[in-house]
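Hey, resending since the last one bounced:
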Amino acid sequence: MDKKLAQTAGKVAEKVIEHTPEPIKDKVKEVAADKAKEKIVENVQDKGHQLTEKLGNAKEKLVDKVEDNAGEAKEKTQDFLLSARDKLGKVVEAGEEIQEKISSASKSDDKRKVKGVSDIKGIGSIKTAKDIKGATKIKTIKDIRTISS
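The structure tokens again:
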């Protein structure tokens, strides 16, 4: 039924347009064109405003997200640097302790010093039965110097 109503309204509008004088038709066309232009301009402006609002909101969200991520990255970097500093401090302390032990050991204990190749005895320096002192070569009381002499 709506179709029949729309068809009859369309036929009536056509008849009215046919019987309307030309100056009025031109005036109606101008007014319709102006209204259409206004509607199009309003529609475009509304869409432009909506777009700028969306862009503004997206920009604010992005700025917040970047700031949050930057803060987290800064905290992680600071934590890493602090832990690295602590570890390096421990390594330095351990190195200093090792240096102290080495220097004190070399000053007080020459026996603990690592021997080089030249310090190792060779075959020629090993005593044999001929090199052992006999009873005649042992010092007596007469051979020992006293404080008074």
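Residues 22-108 form the longest helix (87 residues).

Sorry for the duplicate.
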